[in-house]
Amino acid sequence: MKNNECALKVEQLTVNYDKTPVLWDISFEVPGGKLVGIIGPNGAGKSTLLKSLLDMTPQLSGKVEFFGEPFKKVRRKVAYVPQRSSVDWDFPVTAFDVVLMGRFGKLGLLKWPVAADREAARHALEMVGMLPFAERQISQLSGGQQQRLFIARALLQDADIYLMDEPFSGVDMATEQAIIALMDALKAKGKTLFVVHHDLSSVDRYFDWVIMLNTCLIACGPVAEVFHAESIMRAFGKEGILLGEAAKLTQTKTSGIN
Amino acid sequence: MNTAFLDFFIDPVLRAPTIGSMLMCLAASFVGVLAFVRRRSLLGEALSHCAYPGVVISALITPLFFSASEEALALAVLIGAFCSGVIGLWVIDKLEHRFRVSDDAALCFVLAIFFGVGVLVASRIQITHALIYRKIQVFIYGQAATMTDSHVYMYSGLVLLSATILFCFYREIQVSFFDRQFAKSIGIRTRLVDRVLFFLLVLAIVIGIRSVGVVLMAGMLISPAVAARQFTHSLKWMFCIAGLVGAVSGFLGNFFSIALPEWGKKAGFDWDFILPTGPMILLSSVTICFFALFFAPDRGLLSRFCRIVKFRDRCILENVLKSMWRKGEGAKVSFKEFASWASYSQFFTFFLLLRLRRQGWMEKKQNLFCLTSDGRLRAAHIVRLHRLWEVYLVHMGQKAEKVHRSAEEMEHIITPELEKELTDLLKDPRQDPHHQPIPRKEV
Amino acid sequence: MNLNPYWGAGFFHVLALFFKRLFLFLTGQLSWQQMASDEVQIFVLVLLSFASALIGTFLVLKRMTMLANSLSHTILLGIVIAYVVLLPFSQENPSHGLSIEVLLIASLITGVITTVLTQLMTHLMKLQEDASIGLIFTSLFALGIIAVTVFTRNAHIGIEAIMGNIDALHFNDLKIMGLIGAVDFVVIMLFFKEFKIVSFDSGLARSCGYPIQFFNYLLMVLTSATAIGAFRAVGVLLFLAFLVGLPLTARLLTQRLHKMILLAFVIGTVCSIVAVALSRHLLSIYKMPLSTSGLVVTLIGCTYFLACLFSPHRGILKRRS
């Protein structure tokens, strides 16, 4: 993994949800070793971008390459931290079980985790400060603790690229600082992180690179260069709404609904 | 023996099951619409099974402590089923809210356990009160055929009650279903409305299980509502259409359960049976429902398909006009040239040009085709939309080389309102990203 | 009748006799063919609890219980079609049922068709999921009942499908249930961590490359196969009580997944043994023949109620104290 090699290269990515374009002709390149914030209004396709990078939603067209390879070849090198709401927190597993799941991808089908895997899970829990809670059932954890659990799981995957969907939503200040510290540590090791973020005021403090989205790409580049009033206006302003209207019209025409 | 259409309403044996079934389906469809709109369609499935133990227990108690007459039994069974259904409702609510059971598991659990209790008690009376037991078994699949006129009177009363309640509470129901918070804020007692809905649901089920049985009741709640949904968005019309579908299915079920074997016998088959009414009612209802899903004018699958085909066709026509326009003012093109442009067959091209001429967008002069003035205007408009969209995308940050593909699609889709908004936003641009002029808007 | 060693026995006598005979069976002093009908009932129910604990737990966690309910109803149609298709070919006595391979294939096919049709309705017709499930299973079940009436002139097969006929079980059914239970066990154990992650976090599962649809269909297929074993014993509706009731009760008592499955099995076993013994007791002492399957389900319901009271982390009593 080279630091200056392109960590993520996206070409003309178009993703439809139910015949509505959610991502339209997105193309950008991001070099390695950056902490990238993904910004945009609600429904702009930020979560969809992450999911389509991971092959979780079907792409209508386009090409995605991590370090020059398609996702299927570098699956092990990419870790995903989903939104907290996407998981059933009432599930009868402990915190330790959840973190251990990070190894399942590497194990593949039909194999069981071994002692080394468990030790690594314990270590990951320690890194996020959750070791005392290892045997606790996950519904008994607070929002911040649950988020830290997800991060520990991602750490266990020992990936080079981390995709995180709104890790800061609904967590307390202390957890937010802890997560940022972890992210900086990962960046220092040369990892690349893509983080969907909703709070504009903290973008220049946390990230060094930014991708601004509103169904189509508004801007992609170092924060100092592209994160300014004009591009924020274009992403969040009324102009972006027309894209949404156009998308809805396309959907009705192509699915025959009156 | 040939049963005439009218016999179903007159003949003393046939009329009670027919009218009774129609009334029951009517009540079920009204309530089904409510459940469907609230996304709780399967609540009916759970509650109909919950009614079973109530039926059994009340059938057991009534001859012992009250009278043993048919009417008393029918009334007792209704009351028992109702109580049992309400208890089931309470348990489901507690499971979901107090014990955090997911809604599907709560429904399945209550369904199975209550039914098991019913089976247990029924087995007790299987030997000791065999007659009553046989009467109760009727409730599993329904047995409309043994309904009497007194049943019909009872059901009419209940249907009237349901319809009256729905009518009186209509506004409250409509508002609280659409936006609960808003309803609360304007003083509607949403919990009372909920309770009314559940009361009506249990009532409809209690009426219905006599006709279609415990197992199939869920279907009678769902299919008329689904059918109605395909025709309208308005709650009022959904009630009407669903009620109609329900009543018609109630009739058709009875009709076909007798008529089909008769036709079969006439055709020479050895069909010496009567089809069970409950399943026939349900299948009639589901068939109507599928017809609605396919053929409903607005949302039906067929009309959606037709609309898609028409749209694609319009795109092709407009693309031809566009290409003609690009050739320049007064350009004339031969048939051979046309056929070579796109990869359409000669046959298709011929009809394409014929249609374009018929509609007045193109004309034929000395074996060469050219645009009429109307055609020129329309083509110019499409090109305007295309280039306007390209300007917009570049404005939003796309690269100029990449915007053409999207514009090729959007030029057929942009409505006049959207066009106006784009013109205002971009301040009526004169040139597109490729430095080509944008045709002005014709006044 | 008098050949049955349990005839006339009271509750505790039944239990004592059962365990004594169990020991004799296991040590080979009694041949398996000499199994009494009560014992067959107990073993079939215990095996049913075993299978239900395994698949029911994941069905509940994946919120697929309504689909399982739907499946267990549509199986009736599958069985009737298999019966009709094979009628010209087989000499089988209808009341003894078709051969087990045919039944299993019929169950597999109906399982897949039901799931496919339901998804078709949801995605193609844009219908709500609960309405799709309800429409598909009620119409297929109605078709099944009509087919039963037309082809066998005997609506009782339909009633038996709903309620089962536990008193008609014999040793063959035990073998069938055992086979199904074994298959369920092997598949679930083999893919345990896959089922765990697919049920908990499908997002992670997909990014790890696990085929989620495959595991959904696998679970449905297992459910269909188990339903075949179950419907002869307790009928399709009461099968649901095992499938959903046992895991829900276990969930109230534990926070760990593997303990949940184990507890579900244990509770099912206890309820089964108690139900058969109680049924025999009531018959012997009070001359009251009751439906054993109804009794088991009622006991499962009572156990759930007790678990609600005494649950260590959600119990009613715990909160009050």
Structure description:
The complex is a heterotrimer of chains A (258), B (443) and C (321). Chain A has 258 residues and is α/β, with parallel strands linked by helices. Chain A has helices spanning 46-53, 95-100, 104-107, 115-127, 143-156, 173-188, 203-206, 223-226, 229-236, 238-255; strands spanning 6-17, 20-31, 35-39, 61-66, 78-81, 161-165, 192-196, 209-214, 216-222. Chain A has a 6-stranded mixed sheet, with helices on both faces. A 3-stranded antiparallel sheet of chain A has the order 2-1-4. In chain A, helix 4 (115-127) packs across helix 5 (143-156) and helix 9 (229-236) runs parallel beside helix 10 (238-255). Chain A is globular. The N and C termini of chain A lie far apart (52 Å). The mean pLDDT of chain A is 86. Chain B folds into 3 domains: 7-299, ABC transporter involved in vitamin B12 uptake, BtuC, CATH 1.10.3470; 304-371, Orthogonal Bundle (Arc Repressor Mutant, subunit A); 376-426, Diphtheria Toxin Repressor, domain 2 (Orthogonal Bundle), CATH 1.10.60. In chain B, 75% of the residues lie in helices and 2% in strands. Chain B has a two-stranded antiparallel sheet with strand order 1-2. Chain B is elongated. With 321 residues, chain C is mostly helical. Chain C has a single domain, classed as ABC transporter involved in vitamin B12 uptake, BtuC (Orthogonal Bundle). The longest helix of chain C has 30 residues, at 257-286. Classes of the chains: A alpha/beta (258), B mainly alpha (443), C mainly alpha (321). At the B-C interface, helix 3, helix 5, helix 6, helix 10 and helix 12 of B face helix 3, helix 5, helix 6, helix 11 and helix 13 of C.
Q: Topology, pairings included?
A:
The complex is a heterotrimer of chains A (258), B (443) and C (321).
Chain A: E1 6-17, E2 20-31, E3 35-39, H1 46-53, E4 61-66, E5 78-81, H2 95-100, H3 104-107, H4 115-127, H5 143-156, E6 161-165, H6 173-188, E7 192-196, H7 203-206, E8 209-214, E9 216-222, H8 223-226, H9 229-236, H10 238-255
Parallel strand pairs in A: 3-7, 3-8, 5-6, 6-7
Antiparallel strand pairs in A: 1-2, 1-4, 8-9
Chain B: H1 7-10, H2 12-37, H3 43-65, H4 70-97, H5 103-128, H6 130-141, H7 149-168, H8 170-178, H9 180-185, H10 190-229, H11 235-266, H12 277-295, H13 301-326, H14 335-341, H15 346-358, E1 362-365, E2 368-371, H16 373-395, H17 404-410, H18 416-426
Antiparallel strand pairs in B: 1-2
Helix pairs in contact in B: 2-7, 2-10, 2-11, 3-4, 3-5, 3-6, 3-10, 4-5, 4-10, 5-6, 6-10, 7-10, 10-11, 10-12, 11-12, 13-16, 16-17, 16-18
Chain C: H1 11-26, H2 37-61, H3 65-86, H4 100-123, H5 129-152, H6 156-163, H7 171-190, H8 192-200, H9 202-207, H10 212-233, H11 235-253, H12 257-286, H13 292-310, H14 316-320
Helix pairs in contact in C: 1-12, 2-7, 2-10, 2-11, 2-12, 3-4, 3-5, 3-10, 3-11, 4-5, 4-10, 6-11, 7-10, 10-11, 11-12, 11-13, 12-13
